[in-house]
Design brief:
two-stranded antiparallel sheet; three-stranded mixed beta sheet; BTB/POZ_dom; SKP1/BTB/POZ_sf; disordered C terminus; alpha/beta; 12 helices; BTB domain-containing protein; Potassium Channel Kv1.1, Chain A; 292 residues
C-alpha cells in the first residue's frame, strides 16, 4: 500500500505544471483585490473606523415610485445627519412602525448608498494600487492609469447597454444618467461627504460614455447640487474642455447648447478662462480656438 502511494506521488511530481497566462494588469488587479479583502470589514476610515452596532432598532425605508422596501439598523442610518434627524423624529414610534419614505430616490442608487454605510464602499469596489498610485474598479476591464471619463460620440444605442454599473435609469429624468453622479447627489442630500468623494473618483474611471449621457448627467448634476458645491459641476466642465474635439462634433451638444441654462454659461466662463491661461503661457494663440 505504501509503495503504491509513493509511486503515485512520484508520477504527480513528474507532471509539468501548466503556467497560467495572466497579463500584468490581471496580476495587479488581483493583488489590489486581495489587499482590499484583507482589510477588516466595516472599518473604513470614512465610517469612523468602527463597526456599526447591529443590535439597534430596524428601520424600514420605502424607496422610489414603486415603494421598494429596504431594512437597515438605526445606528447605521444615523451615520448620515439627514437620517439621524429623521430617526430622532420617530424616536417614540414602536420598532415595527419606524418607516422612512424616499419617493424621489432610485432603488438601485439607494442600495449603493446603504451598502456604503455598512461596508465603506459600494459595488464595484474601488481598488487602489499603492505602488503605482493608480485606481481601478473591481471586475471592470479598464486601463488602470485612466483618471478621467473617456467620452464617445453618440452611437444611437441604448445608454443602458454601456454597463450595469455605469448608468442607471432615473424616473425623474426619464432616461439613463451616470450612476455615480446620482449617488453623489444622494450623498450630498444625506450629508455623506466621504461618499461624495468616492462617487466622484469612481465616475472618473468610467470610459466609453456617449456624449448624450454625459450632457444629460451634467444637467442632472446642476439640478441637484447647489452653486456652492462646485466639485461635481467642475468635473463636467473640465471633462468637456478636455474632450472638446469630441463634443464639437456632436449634434447632441449643439441641441443642448440651444437650450442654454446655467451649465452652459459656466462652460463658457470655464472655456474662456482656459483659453486665457493657455494664452498667458504662450503655448497657443486664442484665435486657435475659433470655430469655423
Amino acid at each position: 500500500m505504501f509503495k503504491r502511494s509513493f509511486a503515485a506521488s512520484r508520477e504527480k511530481a513528474g507532471k509539468a505544471r501548466k503556467i497560467s497566462k495572466r497579463s500584468f494588469r490581471d496580476d495587479t488587479k488581483q493583488r489590489m483585490r486581495e489587499a482590499l479583502n484583507d482589510a477588516t470589514p466595516n472599518s473604513s476610515p470614512s465610517l469612523g473606523g468602527s463597526s456599526p452596532k447591529l443590535n439597534s432598532a430596524i428601520v424600514t425605508i420605502a424607496v422610489g415610485k414603486d415603494q421598494r422596501l429596504f431594512a437597515a439598523h438605526e445606528d447605521v442610518l444615523s451615520r448620515s445627519p439627514w437620517f439621524a434627524e429623521v430617526c430622532r423624529e420617530q424616536f417614540f414610534a414602536s420598532p415595527g412602525q419606524r418607516r422612512i419614505t424616499l419617493p424621489d430616490e432610485e432603488p438601485e442608487v439607494f442600495s449603493a448608498v446603504l451598502e456604503y454605510m455598512y461596508k465603506g464602499d459600494y459595488y464595484p469596489r474601488l481598488l487602489h494600487d499603492r505602488k503605482r498610485n493608480t485606481y481601478a474598479l473591481e471586475d471592470v476591464e479598464a486601463d488602470l492609469t485612466m483618471q478621467s471619463i473617456s467620452p464617445q460620440l453618440d452611437s444611437g444605442k441604448k445608454s443602458g447597454g454601456l454597463s450595469d454599473h455605469a448608468v442607471v435609469y432615473h424616473h425623474g429624468v426619464g432616461d439613463y444618467v451616470l450612476r455615480d453622479t446620482v449617488i453623489y447627489c444622494s450623498a450630498l442630500r444625506f450629508g455623506l461627504a466621504d461618499l461624495q468623494r468616492l462617487a466622484l473618483r469612481k465616475q472618473g474611471l468610467q470610459s466609453g460614455i456617449d456624449v448624450a449621457t454625459i450632457l444629460r448627467s451634467a444637467r442632472f448634476a446642476y439640478a441637484n447640487t447647489p452653486p456652492s458645491d462646485s466639485r461635481l459641476r467642475a468635473h463636467y466642465l473640465a471633462l468637456i474642455i478636455r474632450s472638446r474635439k469630441t463634443f464639437k462634433r456632436s449634434g447632441t451638444m449643439q441641441m443642448e447648447m440651444e437650450k442654454g441654462g446655467q451649465f452652459f454659461f459656466d462652460l463658457f466662463v470655464a472655456m474662456a478662462n482656459h483659453i486665457d491661461d493657455v494664452g498667458e503661457q504662450g503655448q497657443v494663440s486664442p484665435s486657435h480656438y475659433l470655430l469655423y
